[in-house]
Amino acid sequence: MHDLVPLTALGAAEARIDEFAGLTIREIPDIALASLAICHGKKAGFQRAVKKALASTLPAPGTSIATNDITLFWTGVDQWMVEAPFASHEDLAAHLSASLKGNASITEQNDGWARFDLEGPLCVDVLQRLSNADSAGMAAAAVTRTAIDHLGCFLICRTAGQHFSILCPRSGAASLHHAVIAAVHSAL
Predict the structure, then answer these.
(1) Who contacts 164 (Cβ-Cβ below 8 Å, separation ≥6)?
(2) How far apart are CA 33 and CA 113, in angstroms?
(3) Residue 85's beta-bridge partner residues?
(4) H-state helical runs in the chain
(5) What pLDDT, in 10s, does the model give residues 122-172?
(6) pTM score, whole prediction
(7) What DSSP character marks residue 163?
(8) Which residues pair with 26 in a beta bridge?
(9) pLDDT tens, residue by residue, 108-117
(10) Cα separations in angstroms, 142 against 65, 87, 101, 119, 145
């Protein structure tokens, strides 16, 4: 029998935290993710089921909605991602599948993505060096898809100018982290 040990996207047992003057970068490994897509012809049923299952309406394009411990964000036409704490939502995709009753295609995204949070007054300076997303103009709850270090990423503004999350493919986590650290040194 194997003794498997869970590792973060950066390959460690504990999440990485990098602290600089004016900025903290945190690896956030303990999230559950599931993607939702409306099944053809089921839009009305989907909207009702989401409101009942998640106690939320659907976020408009380019936005997110956080209720309790769940965040929904728009990823494309009739598509959203659901994010929740892993400890309480390990089976998020199965729960959503049961709750949405055939109105949506649901795919578990756990371990498919890596999340890094940037917090502090240097966030915008660093993000402007990394991508063409208008991080300075993003309001709280805004979401955009952008390229960072040749990786397709989601950029979520948690607090305008002060707190952002970057979600990138897990396979590119080390590359993204390196790019963020290099941008921090450039901004300092």
Answers:
(1) 117, 118, 123, 127, 135, 138, 155, 156, 157, 158
(2) 8
(3) 31
(4) 43-54, 86-89, 92-100, 123-130, 173-187
(5) 999 999 999 999 999 999 999 999 999 999 999 999 999 999 999 999 999
(6) 0.93
(7) E
(8) 17, 117
(9) 998 899 999 9
(10) 9, 26, 29, 16, 11
